[in-house]
Amino acid sequence: MKKSLILTSICFVVFLLISFRGYSQQTTICPGQFIPEGWIVTGTKTCVGCCSPGVLVQMYIIKRIDNLPAGTILTVCPNQVIPSGWVVIGTKSCAGCGCILPGPVVDLYQIKKL
Fold it and tell me: How confident is the model at residue 42 (pLDDT cuts 50, 70, 90)?
């Protein structure tokens, strides 16, 4: 009985970890790479040699959003298509926020899942 309870508890914890992992999926891609459906650009990252040997690039930080619950609010980079089911609810001005080269003021989108 005790072993069964322990095994059930371990399975439940593993299930929770797998389930919540989807809510924070984020990765980086090289400029010009395809952004998968259900993902959106949330920032950039400067990297030397990540896309081509010895070349400095601004990699895109992308986040999976198609698995997020209704009511979720995110701040994302401007000048991209907002996926269906999401609406822009405002903007946020920020200098050096990582959506373009560091320094310039950018009006980031605040989006909400319907």
Answer: very high
